[in-house]
Design goal:
The complex is a heterodimer of chains A (103) and B (162).
Chain A lengths: L4 H21 L3 H25 L6 H31 L13
Chain B lengths: L1 H22 L3 H21 L3 H25 L13 H21 L14 H9 L5 H22 L3
Helix pairs in contact in B: 1-2, 2-3
The chains are: A mainly alpha (103), B mainly alpha (162).
């Protein structure tokens, strides 16, 4: 069975859905960050697949994926720093108990 | 044919690893499953003939982000259990399944204009031309540098002892 564009798109959608479920339903803030990383990577797969199958000579999708990696690295650094700062003040990283900014 | 076998193995392992990240109760094992997921996705980039991106994926995601996450797990010893879910689990599951169905339906029914040209190998010189060359993405590259600088400064300011 030949692998085409749709296979990669469906794989990317499944990974994105798993990441979305984790990001919305988990209580541990680190697990939420890990789920967000899975979502970013899933979108990257879709971009590389489009780049490979629709414009194989332009590679624009791969350039976008490089920028997604930059943003993911920045997001992981700042997000984990926020989690560690919260842990210092509250002794917990349970996202349901951190309600300082809840209205 | 070999490409198809590689795709199916990598796809199944990556989906299983992503499920393990979300479902495992031990947060440290979830982080290890996340590393496996990142590695299989680097393999998927190879099957898409994106060689440079596969190397960068291993370097940045496995080498930097996963290590950062494991470090944060070590520093926040209090909750080693990651399997706990909040009250919204069932509604979230319904929404996610609906979204998954809608996206898969859209992707399968759209007539993509698939090109028959062979992919470029290696991709590195073309990517370098796109990023730094005439009419490329040089402005975005400089903005990415500023973004990384701001992220580093922000992380230092956030975790600094008063």
């Amino acid at each position: 069975m030949l692998v085409g564009l749709e296979h990669y798109l469906i794989l990317s959608t499944v990974l994105f859905a798993i990441g979305l479920y984790g990001a919305l339903s988990k209580r541990n803030a680190i697990i939420i960050l890990m789920s967000i990383e899975i979502m970013l990577v899933a979108v990257s797969i879709a971009l590389v697949a489009f780049s490979r199958y629709i414009v194989p000579l332009a590679l624009t999708g791969q350039v976008f994926v490089i920028f997604i990696m930059v943003v993911a690295a920045a997001e992981a650094a700042v997000g984990l720093a926020i989690i560690i700062a919260i842990y210092r003040g509250y002794e917990t990283i349970d996202a349901t108990k951190i309600n300082l900014m809840k209205w | 044919m070999g490409l198809a076998i590689a795709f199916w193995i990598l796809a199944i392992v990556s989906v299983a690893a992503a499920l393990a990240v979300v479902l495992l109760r031990d947060i440290f094992r979830a982080a290890l499953a996340l590393i496996l997921c990142f590695l299989t996705i680097a393999g998927l980039y190879v099957t898409l003939s994106a060689d440079f991106l596969a190397a960068v994926q291993v370097l940045i995601y496995v080498g930097a982000i996963a290590i950062l996450i494991i470090l944060a797990i070590m520093l926040t010893r209090e909750v080693q259990r990651g399997g706990l879910t909040n009250k919204l689990q069932i509604p979230v599951l319904v929404v996610v399944v609906l979204l998954l169905g809608a996206l898969i339906y859209t992707m399968v029914s759209t007539p993509w204009a698939v090109s028959t040209a062979m992919p470029l190998v290696p991709t590195t010189p073309v990517l370098a031309g796109k990023l730094f060359g005439e009419g490329g993405f040089i402005l975005v590259v400089e903005m990415a540098a500023v973004l990384l600088l701001v992220a580093i400064l922000g992380a230092i300011v956030l975790v600094r002892e008063k």
